[in-house]
Amino acid sequence: MNERLMERFSTLVRDGAATQERQPATESEGIEDLLAFGVLRGIRERAVMLELRKRTGNILAIDYGGLEVEFDPSEGIVLHTMSGRKVVIKGRNLNAVTQTVSLFHGLTRHRVSWVQEMGQNKLFQTEQGATVVESIAW
Question: Rounded distance, CA 132 to CA 93, Å?
Answer without folding.
Answer: 7
